């Protein structure tokens, strides 16, 4: 049973309940545009994978404090609840009435965490109590303390400071995002405009490649035998995308991973999946998808003569033919014919 499925089963018994006899009775509610609204206790949050990062909280008034924060990346929590299509922001509500929000993409970044510890111990009450939001390179009013609810919405939410005219972005000039433990790694894809794929994993990533012809990301991972590994992959839609989230396929050691989680916003697709480490190297064959728009077959950002050549070489073929190329089957009807040529002509000259 996967880690995520176990978490879903364990939390199903506590939805809507709150026991005053618990040592830490405070609940975290996640609601709004989610597939599975959930109500986590503090003890349940302890079971999620964590990362650590040294990050500076900087108030717009000028004071700063530096901690080594340890907590749960928000994407872990939202991968359990799911996020519905059309969601644009994540809103954070505090027990004292304070609130703020983040765009979905920033909320799902590996450095955005629900902190449970500061410098290896429980978070001081004045810093947020049991847990608080940590958003490196954002001003302190985005670092909501004493969080009780997280809501996913499809509109531009104005929090306490934002409603008074402070920046929605709250970006700190010249700030560099911190490293995390385990680290997230960024890989440049030199296809057309350089594109970055980000992977956060508790495994060691030994190699990485992107296969243009197969529309496939590959990376090899290793980890301690008989332990559970996970990978969280952020893929820009300018590189790969699917019409339906169910079209994404993730493989490990030639075995299809059924229990993978997919989150999306307008710019990126976020995939989370776990697997068992073994003595042998584990290969994640990645994701199959289509190019950023029809007919850009070599994903160089332009529909041009090179794409025409691909269709011409496969013209008249179907599966089983020696010249069959599924990339040239633009309308996915299992044959490369005049209809594919028409689609190519309609898109000829387009650029990303």
Describe it for me?
The chain is an alpha+beta fold and 352 residues long. It folds into 3 domains: 3-164, Oxidoreductase, molybdopterin-binding domain (Sulfite Oxidase, Chain A, domain 2), CATH 3.90.420; 184-284; 305-347, no CATH class. The chain is 13% helix and 32% strand. A 5-stranded mixed beta sheet has the order 2-1-10-5-6. Strands 3, 4, 7, 8 and 9 form a 5-stranded antiparallel beta sheet that branches. Strands 11-12-15-19-18 form a 5-stranded antiparallel beta sheet, covered by helices on one side. Strand 1 (27-32) and strand 2 form a beta hairpin. Mean pLDDT is 85; it is low at 1-24.
What's this model, at a glance?
With 352 residues, the chain is α+β, with helices and mostly antiparallel strands.
Features:
disordered N terminus; five-stranded mixed β-sheet; 352 residues; five-stranded antiparallel β-sheet; 13% helix
Give the helices and strands, then pairings.
Blueprint (H helix, E strand, L loop, with lengths): L2 H10 L14 E6 L5 E4 H4 L5 E8 L5 E10 H8 L7 E6 L4 E5 H4 L5 E6 L2 E2 L9 E3 L12 E7 L30 E6 L5 E7 L2 E8 L4 E7 L5 E9 L14 E2 L2 E2 L4 E4 L3 E9 L5 E3 L20 H10 L23 H10 L5
Parallel strand pairs: 1-10
Antiparallel strand pairs: 1-2, 3-4, 4-7, 5-6, 5-10, 7-8, 7-9, 11-12, 12-15, 13-14, 14-20, 15-19, 16-17, 18-19
